Amino acid sequence: MSQLIKKRRIDSYALAWRLPIIVWQLLFFVGPLLFLIAMSFFLVKNYRMVETFDLANWARMFSKDYFWSSYLYTFGMASLATVVATLIAFPASYALAFKVSDNVRRWAVFFLIVPFFTSYLVRTFSWYVILAESGIVNSILGNVGLGPFKMLNTPFGTMVGFMTLVLPLLVILQTLSLSQIDKNLIEAAHNLGCGRIRTIYAVIIPLAKIGLVVGALFCFILSFGDFVSPYYLGGSSPPTLSILIIDTTKSGQQWPRAAVVAICMMTTLFVMAFLAIRFAYRKPAS
Amino acid sequence: MTEPLVKFRDVVKRFGNFIAVKRMDLDIYEGEFVAFMGPSGCGKTTTLRLLAGLETPSEGEIRLDGELMNEVKPHERETPLVWQSLALFPFLNARENVEFGLKMRGFDADVRREKATKWLERLGMGEFIERDVSQLSGGQRQRVALARALVTEPKILLLDEPLSALDAHLVIRMQGVLTKLQRELGITFVYVTHSQSEAFAMADRVVIMGEGNIQQVGSPREIYRTPKNRFVAEFVGRNNILSGTVQNVQTDTLVVKTPSGDFSVPNPEDRTFQVSDPISFSVSADLVTISVERSDADNCVECNLISEEFIGSVVTLFLEANDGTELKAQVQEKELEKIDPKLQISYYMSWPTRSAHVLENNPSEE
To answer: Is residue A44 one of the residues assigned to a domain?
Structure first.
């Protein structure tokens, strides 16, 4: 009997701590999400939303080529951004984790946080000066008789924007996960006949796998859902899914159709996150 | 005399202003079990890392099998090391860990598997070949680390305090495993430890290091019975160290005047002493006798009991001479009954002259 009472008391104590996050999640995550799903079955008549259950929005979006081409373009750009950012960030993170003093590493992490002081939108606009037809890059290239190259309003511009968004975060995540590696394991690899470059993929990457995959996942999520870069630097040509959402809501108050696009995006991200985390924590098959 | 497997010649290793190893000269022969022993920061681990190529000497030469090793990269050497932390790869299982070195040397998958399995079985790990490292106990991981280092059949195995993380009873077991293995394989083991019992139990030769210098090289027995200098005598412990000046020189004995009294010590053959020269000598704690009455032995000093350390059949008594000099005596537990120790009771410690041993100055004082 006394044991029962003790057990109940501990439970209510734990619940008291858990309650705020549960309430918060129900109010601001589960609630809106359920509403979004419900809304995707509503219809718009005379610019007014009618609460009903109709598959028309789903049928219409899935039958449109522009939806599928946006989806493929968005998915492709986010994947490319993930690969490019990971390849650019890794050498920097490797150097920061292993080839500099603790002091330099601390300052580097500090300076990598500085970009977050200003809005991403502001940073994106600053690329105009650099990438424009008469911008810094083209005037430098013009001096050696090259160009001008069209960089704004192209997928290249979008990619530059994505890198602005993800690189500082990615280098921080990778540096932190690489610097957690036990240096003895690296020396042990050398001691067993493993050269320096081979050690990177035979020992360092497997050891930092979780951090590297989580970093890559963030790249994908941020690029997949980003609106700013594809709109301002990519010139909406072709549109990504987030631009499609904006356009759909603007044209004829089609919130339910926008909800369909949003649900497709969220489902994609859920699946990608699930696969990435499962891959990160799985032991490599030998 | 065969050519030594390892030669250190005038090896110096500096880290900035700190000198970790000062002018080391040492030969290590094939098939020897050599233990480097010393307090932390004495340079023993640096010496091992120099051998493995994880550090490069600031000065001097290191030769392995006659070949100059100074500039040879660690991954180009055949000097496998067993790490204090074991450094097993957590993302590989036991067999894959053992196969790692073979994989780097380009062995085929089936050869790797066969060799790894053979070594794990030899070390009694037959049932755990496919286990994850995280599922193994400390002793089992130790064996995986050993198999991983030995699978490439090196001429020399380096061990950096490999037993320090194990429970006491496992340490004794692993000592047995290591000595047996070393004898069967006939390869050189270089073993770094701060534990006297490990070094003395396993090694053919012990190298005592202190402050970056080799203080003494010798068999465990030589080091125990005839410590070369004060550093070794203090480090090995259980030694009574007395200092004073020479008062009287005879052919085979010297009379030494110390604050605790006058004692006679054997006159060392390799050094000449004159009256009033400073001198230190040691008397091993297990060679002294404790009595309640003054004894008629060659040397006798009155002292008070401070504390005792009971570790089973042997008891160590910590005493203090009238001038405050610390003294130690190791006596059999059954003999203790005769003197009935109560704290702060006065005793006499005595020893024959031949039990005393004259110490040299520490190298850093020269």
So the answer is: no
Q: Does A46 touch chain B (CB under 8 A)?
A: no
Q: B162: closest CA among B88, B83, B232? A: B83
Residue B366 has what pLDDT? Answer: 45
Which DSSP category does B294 fall into? P
**Spatial contact of B28 and B34, defined as CB atoms under 8 Å apart:** yes
Measure the CA angle with vertex A157, ends A156 and A162; round to 5°: 95
Read off the pLDDT of residues A114-159 as tens digits, 9 standing for 90 and up. 999 989 999 999 998 999 888 899 889 988 888 788 889 999 999 9
C-alpha to C-alpha distance for B362 and B366, rounded to whole angstroms = 7
ipTM for this prediction? 0.85
Reported as a single tens digit per residue, the pLDDT across A190-234 is 999 999 999 999 999 999 999 999 999 999 999 999 999 999 999
Q: What are phi and psi of A108, to 5 degrees?
A: -60, -45
Is A87 within the bounds of a domain? yes
The count of structural domains within chain A is 1
With beta carbons under 8 A apart, name residues in chain B contacting A189: 75, 89, 100
Query: Does residue A168 form part of some domain?
Result: yes
Contacts B101 to A, Cβ<8 Å: 192-193
Report DSSP state, residue B312. S
**Closest Cα in chain B to A210:** B91
Which tokens go with A59?
A: 């049928």
CA dihedral B71, B75, B79, B81 (to 10 degrees): 120
CB nearest to B104's CB, from A185, A192, A209: A192
